Amino acid sequence: MRMIFQGKYDRARALEKERMEGRKRAVDEDDLESKLEKNDMLAMILSALLVFLPAALIVLGILALVGYLFFFH
């Protein structure tokens, strides 16, 4: 199944590929480990915990409340 504007899409992709021909891509560069400083990984882990842990606790609390109300109330 072809997209409605497949020809225009193909021409736009070819033009973009031609424009980007000489540039370096971020994917082609070295891995992330070589660009991190000493405690960057620890900082990323701690910030992820600060973001996701409260949300997970709220969801868990809601599920526990629903379970309590379903079984014991």
Summarize the structure.
The protein has 73 residues and is an all-alpha fold. It has one domain (6-72). The protein contains 2 helices and no strands.
Q: Main traits of this protein?
A:
single chain, mainly alpha, about 70 residues
What report would you give on this structure?
- With 73 residues, this protein is mainly α.
- The protein has one domain.
- 64% of the residues lie in helices and 0% in strands.
- It has 2 helices and no strands.
- It has helices spanning 6-19, 40-72.
- The longest helix is centred in the C-terminal third of the chain and has 33 residues, at 40-72.
- The radius of gyration is 24 Å and the shape is flat.
How is this fold's topology laid out?
Elements (H helix, E strand, L loop, with lengths): L5 H14 L20 H33 L1
Shape: flat
pLDDT < 50 stretches: none
Tally of individual domains = 1
Number of strands: 0
Query: Could you give the order of the helices and strands?
Result: HH
Number of helices: 2
Distance between termini?
55 Å
Helicity level: 55-70%
Gyration radius (Cα, Å) is 24 Å
Give the DSSP E fraction (strand runs of 2 or more residues): under 5%
Note the main sheet: none
Structural class: mainly alpha
Mean pLDDT: 86
